[in-house]
Amino acid sequence: MTWQQRIEQQLAQRRADDSFRTRQVHERGSGRFLVSSGRRHLNFSSNDYLGLSQHPDVIRAWQKGAEEYGVGSGGSGHVTGYGEAHKQLEDELCDWLGYPRALLFISGFAANQAAIAALAQKQDRIIADRLSHASLLEAAMLSPAQLRRFAHNDVQALDGLLAGDCEGGQLVVTEGVFSMDGDQAPLGDIAAATRRAGGWLLVDDAHGIGVLGEEGRGSCYQQQVQPEILIVTFGKAFGVSGAAVLCSADVADYLLQFARHLIYSTAMPPAQACTLSAALRVIRSGEERRERLRRNIADFRLGAARLPLGLRDSQTAIQPLIVGENARTLELAARMRERGFWLTAIRPPTVPAGSARLRVTLTADHTRDDIAALLEALYDETGK
Question: Does the annotation mark 135 as catalytic?
Fold first, then answer.
């Protein structure tokens, strides 16, 4: 089979399964409203949980940073790309989260790939929650280490895998808040199991940081856990993009020597680092925003419990409504858009077969009227 034949066959299969992915051009894609093809929709697909992508202080910080530093970093952080704005942001993250060191990455995907690729050797074992993000699982599969996966949030299953013989180190990998189901990992129990086995814990808290815990310090702080490696990303509650690895001084120095994603990538623009520092200040003082988000989550769950759809047990901003069939999910998402609500249909292979869903995400900027209108439209459409 030629390359072209293989590509055509796999694309045809995706289309036949109603799992073919497409992108749509938006005039405005973040914030409370999404504008597409000239039409405004209430946006219930954004990960901008605190609305910081539209916050005036955060926007001004980007403008001021661009005026001072320009719009690019000019190179890798190992050459000319590591400036005072990057160092300041790293120091602020350390102060906030209680770690000796922080290293900035251009994306959460890159941070996860870099940390695992640099640490995992042939004699090691990576034990990952089965529903961990694709960036974590792919990095583990591509590494020379053995990959074992434990049943989702099943600490007993994790214990059993940790008990197996291993010549090297064991790295347990999980998320703080899972991106498709919105549920939280039992980090206290996972950390205890990992410590008993002498392993290390890596937590990707992309969807918990900024939202959970005192000052928005995230899932680990909320559950009084300090993993050896904490990944925080800036494309969700921070409202921007990028990521950081929080770790010990020795691990940071090791990554600076061996993390190829860090060494050979152009560093984030210093203006972006200025913007993230401004977003962090808003997050640390943003309890009122987090309280609005908690209220919106409670309002939505109260109403969604009456829908003829599967409502997952999530207390976070991610509220998946399980539809089941791919075609039906796509149809429901299209009908909701016609009514002015932007909801994303999530289908396999992103989620398990038979669990296609509308992934509703709530933000602090949604009003109670927004949520009431969304629920009313969902009642109408699913009752047909």
Answer: no
pLDDT tens column, 64-118: 999 999 999 999 999 999 999 999 999 999 999 999 999 999 999 999 999 999 9
Determine which one of 133, 181, 183, 219 is catalytic.
Answer: 133
Question: Given 30, 132, 179, 296, which residue is catalytic?
Answer: 179
| pLDDT tens digits for range 252-308 | 999 999 999 999 999 999 999 999 999 999 999 999 999 999 999 999 999 999 999
Residue 302: partners with Cβ closer than 8 Å, 6 or more residues away: none
DSSP string over 256-275: HHH-HHHHSSBPPPHHHHHH
Active site residue 107: no
**The two three-digit tokens of residue 81, written as one number:** 């790309």
Which residue in 48, 129, 183, 204 is the catalytic one? 204
Candidates 41, 55, 86, 207; catalytic one: 207
Laid out side by side, the sheet with 318-324 consists of 310-311, 318-324, 356-361, 344-346
- Whether residue 133 lies in the annotated active site: yes
324-372 confidence digits (pLDDT tens): 999 999 999 999 999 999 999 999 988 888 999 999 999 999 999 999 9
Annotated catalytic residue: which of 124, 175, 205, 370?
175
Q: Which residue has the tokens 């429901």?
A: 332
Q: Cis (ω within 30 of 0) for the bond into 349?
A: yes
175 is annotated as an active-site residue: yes
- Secondary structure E strands in the chain: 33-36, 39-43, 101-105, 125-129, 146-150, 170-175, 200-204, 229-233, 243-247, 310-311, 318-324, 341-342, 344-346, 356-361
Give catalytic status of residue 46 as yes or no.
no
Task: Record the tokens describing residue 286, joined without a space.
Answer: 């943003």
- Asked if 204 is an active-site residue, the reply is yes
Q: Which of 82, 90, 134 is nearest to 113 (CA)?
A: 134
Question: What is the Cα–Cα distance from 237 to 53, expressed in whole angstroms?
Answer: 9
73 annotated active-site: no
